[in-house]
Amino acid sequence: MLSIVILNWNGCSMMQRYLPSIVENSQGADIIVADNASTDESLTMLAREFPMVRIIPMSRNWGFANGYNKAFKVLEAEDIKPNVAFKSPLRHIKKEERSSTLGNDNYYLLLNSDVRVEQGWLTPLVEYMDSHHDVAACQPKMLSDANPEMFEYAGACGGYMDKYGYPYCRGRVMGTVERDEGQYDEVADVLWASGACLMIRAKDYWAAGGLDGRFFAHQEEIDLCWRLNLMGRRVVCIPQSKVFHLGGGTLPQGNPRKTHLNFRNNLTSLYKNLPSEPNSGAPCGLDEVMSVRKWLDRLAELQMLLTLHWGDFRAVMRARRDFLAWQHTFDKERARIQKQAKNSPAVGLTDVSILWQYYYKRKKTFDKLTN
Predict the structure, then answer these.
(1) Helices (H), ranges, the chain
(2) What global pTM score does this model have?
(3) Which helix (H) or strand (E) holds 7?
(4) pLDDT band at 85 (very low <50, low <70, confident <90, very high)
(5) Half-sphere exposure (CA, 13 Å, Cβ side) for 193?
(6) Which of 65, 231, 277, 344 could form a disulfide with 211 if both were Cys (CB 3.0 to 4.6 A apart)?
(7) Is there a contact between 40 and 9 (Cβ–Cβ < 8 Å)?
(8) Are 261 and 250 in contact (CB under 8 A)?
(9) What is the 3-state secondary structure (H, E, C) of 67-92?
(10) Contact assessment for residue 267 and residue 291, using Cβ atoms and an 8 Å cutoff
(11) Half-sphere exposure (CA, 13 Å, Cβ side) for 333?
(12) Mean confidence (pLDDT) of the chain
């Protein structure tokens, strides 16, 4: 059974634009909008124009991470209380009216509201997951909806992380996004799959503890996929499926709030998941990475200051301060993750410095990166 869950917050116009392709091309899947207490016309519009889409209305804006956690808990509770789980004031659809039969296992598919899909997009994902039970999560090839010949920044063809904690993708390194010429069309194990379109086994989602709600938004899918990898579960990109993502619909690039969340959450994920000492999957231990990152983040601040990006400059300073303030609250979780880690060679955690490769060696595409 496959449940496609779209998290919405004041995205009425975005859903009007993109939901039709999801409804038309996702036969057999259960399509659900989890609404983070929108104040626009989202709920009214959904009831009027998409009666086949179920709604989970929430009492407040829980953010991306906790929003999905709460929505999935409602889905799980529905198996126990089928007539209680969904109490939308607009509509009530009973569990027995569902037609979701796609897939041999129970899957969640996290999908952004600004994603367009085509006929057959689900089949490669479900078939691969059904036949590879060691795979916990996957993503399709992600192309730009604004320019479909190009990869999309957020996920491209699957995510990696360099030795100092900077995420990058097959198809996107730093700010350089590649043209899709079929160069990454093989299925590949990755460290992380993009939360813009992330398919995951329900049992693996809960076994890993779900998304970390404290992150609110940004980098939470990297943290979750990294934990899955450490549990010995695989994460893959399946480019035989492709979707088209607009991107930046909620917080666009260059937004200081986004900068703050990315820096704070990235440091937190490193603290939770990196081993204390280097091993075959982590070229650097935690102390070395944190020491280097302190200076690299200072350089980022200086660059923002010199280019008059005052909001981003303050956001990075605040992110480091906020990370240090809450770091100790993750101590027990870090100890548990490191103790239970089954898969030392973390696939996709590479012995590469992206900053060195990109700015000094001028290697700006995934295939050109070297140690």
Answers:
(1) 12-25, 42-49, 63-78, 122-131, 202-207, 220-230, 256-273, 286-306, 310-326, 331-340, 354-355
(2) 0.90
(3) strand 2-8
(4) very low
(5) 29
(6) 65
(7) no
(8) no
(9) HHHHHHHHHHHHCCCCCCCCCCCCCC
(10) no
(11) 18
(12) 90
Residue 99: predicted pLDDT? 42
CB 204 within 8 A of CB 136: yes
Tokens linked to 358: 């990109």
CB 23, CB 52: distance < 8 Å: yes
CA angle (176 as vertex; 174, 179 as ends), nearest 5: 140
What sign for the dihedral angle of Cα 195, 235, 219, 183?
negative
pLDDT digit string (tens) for 323-346?
999 999 999 999 999 998 885 556
24, amino acid identity: E
Give dist(CA 121, CA 243) in Å, integer. Answer: 7
Two tokens, residue 346: 């973390």
Reported as a pLDDT band with limits 50, 70 and 90, residue 80 is: very low
Local structure of 235: helix, strand or coil: strand
CA gap 115, 124 in Å, rounded: 17
Place of tokens 């492709």: 242
